[in-house]
Each structure stands twice: as C-alpha cells, then as structure tokens.
Design a protein that fits this description.
Layout: H1 13-17, H2 40-49, H3 64-78, H4 82-94, E1 115-117, E2 123-125, H5 144-155, H6 162-169, E3 181-184, E4 189-192, E5 200-208, E6 211-218, E7 223-229, H7 236-246, H8 258-269, H9 271-276, H10 278-283, H11 292-304, H12 308-326
Antiparallel strand pairs: 1-2, 3-4, 4-5, 5-6, 6-7
Length: about 325
C-alpha cells in the first residue's frame, strides 16, 4: 500500500514475477543516475514517476521495478528488510560467504574493475556504474564459487521443492515449455532447444555497470555453467559454449556483441554505405534487428570513441526509422 502507480491495485504477484505488471525499471526515468546511492524513499519516487508501458497483464516487459516491489512484499510479510531475508534464506543456506551489496558506487580496489567495449579495439572503464545497496531486482556482488554453490543448492532442493520448480519454470502453468523456444517463468529463463540443441536449460543472465554474469543449469545432467566477466554484455556466447562442451555438443566461435560488430563495420565501410540500406548493412555482420533503440546504442558507442560524424548519421537513421514505424 501507499504506492502511487497507475492500476497498482490491479497488479498481482504473478504479474510482478513474470514481468507482466506493465511497469518499466527505475533507470527508465530520464533523471536516473547510476552513480548515486538512492534511499528507499527516493527509489520509490522514481518508480512512481516512470510511466507504465502497458496495463497489468497486457504484455511482457522486463521490469526491475516489479522485482523491487516483490522485495517490499517479502519485507512486509517477514517484518525484516529484504537484505536480511535474502542473507538468511539464501546466502547462508548456500554457503555464499562472498556475496553482498556495496555501500558505494564504485568497485573495491581489489575487485575486478568494470569495462565496456565500444568497438573490438576501443573500450573504457565504467568506474561510476555500480548500483549500491542491492535490492530484489539484483545488483549483488558475488563470485563464481558462490553462484555455483547457489545453483547446486537449487538443484538439491535446498530452496524450493520439485513441484514448486515446475510452477516457477512455467509461471504457474501459463507458459507451455513443452515447445521449443525461450520462456520467462518466475524469476528465471527457460530455454527449450534454443540455447543448447535438444536440451532444456534453466537460468538467467545479468549485467550492467560494466559486468556480465550468466548462470545456466541443465537439470537432466546436473551440469551448471557460471560465467562472470568485467566487460559488459560479453558472456552469452561463452556460456553457451561451456554448456555445449560439458554435454559433448559442438561449440561455435564466440562473436562480439551486436553493437560492437556494427561499430566496427561502420568504421570499415563508412556512413554513406550504411545509409544506402541500413538493414542490408547490418545483415552483413549477422545482425537481423534494425530498430531505433539498437541504432541509438550504436550511435552512443560511436560518440564514446569520438566518431561524432558517424554517430550523427546513425542517429538520423534511428529517428527516420522511428517515424516510419509510427505511421
């Protein structure tokens, strides 16, 4: 109670868990600052000020705000902070002795420092990109040993029973995971014959602030793959290859991220070549998505490496595509 969010009284826990609440995330607020240590009251105000993407239940939209609210619900039920609850119910049970949140917005000097690649040869540190005081939506600092311990505890039934896992994976029966594809259950992704051929893989990806973290489980074999990188959005292909290798399946060469591939190709071919046919240009580097948001990300990376003319040209294409899609 006490939240000023449109249709708040119509939202259900089910919708919050499988990202159908209609809410976005705190950083969708135009004034959100990743370098600031927000108080709970300030985060609440930010969440309230971000307009919804849809009405509750209408569509899937990944929402960190929804998981913040779930943490608030847990705290209201237990009478303790979410921080205390998760330490007691998860970290202690799994033996996760090196998992916690930060009290600052920068990584400790003895930890891996975060970076982001803008091209295959140009990168910069993200020293002010770590969210302090983690919440139910994430932001915890951990290591591979602790995350592996969590996964083995999860497989071993330390947290939830087998019937409850089925509810989690299928979002209480609303996702038919008998078919091939990628599904979102309650707090977890389910990849059926998509991430690994012929296998159902459970897990989640994470990232932000110059980091990329994956945790994938293949329940049939019990194999667990955990990858952590101090370069943003660089893990997916590696994680898939590790799981394939563990299962005796073929691996594939790991590619750079789509934004990096696009930036490299733009610097090689030039702006005029791109503007002639942006969709065809992107397909040359195996990118089948030409949407305004992606092009804006490409333009931002170009600005970070001071390729202003290229960035302006890509921004023009993004605006033209956005206008075309509105018609």
């Amino acid at each position: 109670s006490g939240w000023n969010i449109p249709d708040f009284d119509k939202m259900t826990v089910h919708q919050l868990l499988n990202h159908r609440s209609g809410m976005k995330s705190p950083w969708d607020h135009p004034k959100y600052d990743f370098s600031k240590a927000y108080t709970p009251a300030e985060i609440k105000k930010i969440i309230e000020e971000v307009p919804p993407i849809a009405k509750p239940g209408e569509q899937y939209f990944y929402s960190n705000s929804g998981y913040y609210l779930l943490g608030e619900i847990i705290a209201a039920v237990t009478g303790q902070s979410y921080d205390t609850d998760v330490h007691k119910a998860v970290f202690k049970v799994a033996g996760m002795d090196h998992t916690d949140h930060l009290n600052a917005t920068v990584m400790p000097a003895d930890a891996a420092q975060p970076y982001i690649f803008h091209s295959s040869t140009e990168y910069r540190p993200l020293s002010q990109g770590v969210s302090p005081k983690a919440m139910a939506a994430g932001g915890w600092v951990s290591n591979a040993h602790d995350l592996y311990g969590f996964a083995k505890g999860y497989l071993g039934g330390k947290f939830i029973s087998a019937p409850t896992k089925k509810i989690q994976w299928t979002a209480n029966g609303t996702q038919d995971i008998a078919k091939d594809g990628r599904y979102y259950g309650y707090g977890t992704e389910v990849h059926v014959n998509s991430l690994v051929p012929g296998k159902t893989v459970i897990g989640h990806t994470g990232g932000g602030g110059g980091f990329s973290i994956d945790l994938f489980i293949e329940p049939e074999s019990g194999y667990v793959v955990v990858t952590l990188s101090n370069a943003y959005a660089m893990n997916r292909a590696m994680s898939t290859n590790f799981m394939n290798a563990a299962l005796g399946l073929p691996t594939r060469p790991a590619a750079q991220t789509a934004v990096v591939r696009a930036v490299d190709h733009l610097q090689l071919k030039g702006l005029a070549y791109f503007q002639k046919d942006p969709a065809a240009f992107l397909k040359e580097v195996n990118i089948n998505t030409a949407n305004p948001g992606f092009l804006e990300d490409v333009a931002q990376s170009l600005r970070e490496i001071r390729k202003t003319e290229l960035a302006d040209g890509v921004d023009e294409s993004a605006k033209a595509l956005a206008a075309k899609l509105k018609k």
